[in-house]
């Protein structure tokens, strides 16, 4: 019998056959999967190459450390799944109930972010978090809501302190959100790399497999598929990381990313998106550091793009050469207005 050692319960590692497999051993493995999802696809016990050492630690009762983005309530649930005594672990029914209790009761909960009631969360259409001192750590709360909400149409994150890490979290949430129409992330600090994350969330041409899927494919198929299905049912937010294809956002029409220190490199990433995106109608890139090369990338993309109607490039670093690129684009593209 091939045993997925890093995912298996201690009692499985102590037996030679299938006699110790049970619902509770599956729950233990579910805990490992939830840890892996919260740690964004890291290999369990990844710092240890020797499987025998991993086996020894698991049998001894040592557990994985808490991921950075895993809050205390979810972490306590995961740890319960790893109890050395199988009878003390929760059943899947109990696990489901515990996970459902994690459904957010407030839109944002943080010392420096105003607490907004979630009584109308199912009908929330617009969320304005302008000037809320939101940094890369606090924006995770926003990303969680964005990923799970099915009614939000407008999200304003203008004038905060969101950087590269926060942009990545927002972009990841955008891949799973198919209702947001307008996103304003102007006056932050996302830079070129953060712009790249957002651009790729709006246009992805290749299918990517996450490490977690590549690992799972080497496990016992029937048993592992059952666990994945259960995870999707019990914790859909965490299960988003298990998708074997990288989703894209197909509804966002208005994107404001003014004043984010975006240069020609960020413009290049956006141009790649504009060549294939047929949803976005308004792109605001004012008050950045885009020069003639960046303008050239964007205007070349506009030859193919026939849906973008408004493009703001004011207060960048555009010379007469860049202006010429814009003029030529206007001849070939009768839709976009600068």
UniProtKB/TrEMBL annotation:
<dbReference type="InterPro" id="IPR001245">
    <property type="entry name" value="Ser-Thr/Tyr_kinase_cat_dom"/>
</dbReference>
<dbReference type="GO" id="GO:0004713">
    <property type="term" value="F:protein tyrosine kinase activity"/>
</dbReference>
<dbReference type="InterPro" id="IPR020635">
    <property type="entry name" value="Tyr_kinase_cat_dom"/>
</dbReference>
<protein>
    <recommendedName>
        <fullName>Protein kinase domain-containing protein</fullName>
    </recommendedName>
</protein>
<dbReference type="InterPro" id="IPR000719">
    <property type="entry name" value="Prot_kinase_dom"/>
</dbReference>
<keyword id="KW-0677">Repeat</keyword>
<dbReference type="InterPro" id="IPR001611">
    <property type="entry name" value="Leu-rich_rpt"/>
</dbReference>
<dbReference type="Pfam" id="PF13516">
    <property type="entry name" value="LRR_6"/>
</dbReference>
<dbReference type="InterPro" id="IPR032675">
    <property type="entry name" value="LRR_dom_sf"/>
</dbReference>
<dbReference type="Pfam" id="PF07714">
    <property type="entry name" value="PK_Tyr_Ser-Thr"/>
</dbReference>
<keyword id="KW-0433">Leucine-rich repeat</keyword>
<dbReference type="InterPro" id="IPR052201">
    <property type="entry name" value="LRR-containing_regulator"/>
</dbReference>
<dbReference type="InterPro" id="IPR011009">
    <property type="entry name" value="Kinase-like_dom_sf"/>
</dbReference>
<dbReference type="GO" id="GO:0005524">
    <property type="term" value="F:ATP binding"/>
</dbReference>
<feature type="domain" description="Protein kinase">
    <location>
        <begin position="1"/>
        <end position="106"/>
    </location>
</feature>
